[in-house]
Amino acid sequence: MTRFPEELLPLHELTEQDRLLVRAAQDVIQRNYDEENSNHTVGAAVRCKSGKVYVGVNVYSLHGACAEQIAIGTAITNGEREFEAIVAVRGRQGEEILPPCGNCRQILHDYMPECEVIVSVKGTPKKIAAKDLLPFSYTVEG
Ligand SMILES: [Zn+2]
């Protein structure tokens, strides 16, 4: 598989607020990690323009929901419409920063193209705008 060279991507450094966001995602999966059935293994946290942070864990099923979707849905349920940054982590301690899946990338692109997504680049957390994670993306307008 040919990989896009990271140095060509518009990556940004994390702020202290972003590090707190990663910690919020780690905290929610540490509290909810499902040792028995592995139904909940990913935690996510989204920071809104209001400054509030909403968290979620994945809900495993054949067509289950990713942790990002639960966090975004909770934020929207609470009236939030503008998003600054999002991160998902996997593992008992949330030790692995997880890039969004294809479906989540489409959701991020549709709902919050300017929102920054925290990803791991060669083991170092960086941020990239959601719109830059899905080149040649599908849009309804065409
Ligand atoms: Zn996903």
TrEMBL record:
What this protein is called in its record is Cytidine deaminase
Keywords of this protein's UniProt record, alphabetized? Answer: Hydrolase, Metal-binding, Zinc
Annotated CMP/dCMP-type deaminase domain ranges read: 16-141
Coiled coil region boundaries: none
Family recorded in the similarity comment? Belongs to the cytidine and deoxycytidylate deaminase family.
Pfam families reported in the protein's UniProt record = dCMP_cyt_deam_1
Q: Does the keyword Zinc apply?
A: yes
What superkingdom does the record give? Bacteria
Instruction: Name the species this protein comes from.
Output: Ruthenibacterium intestinale
Entry-linked InterPro entries = APOBEC/CMP_deaminase_Zn-bd, CMP_dCMP_dom, Cyt/Deoxycyt_deaminase, Cytidine_deaminase-like
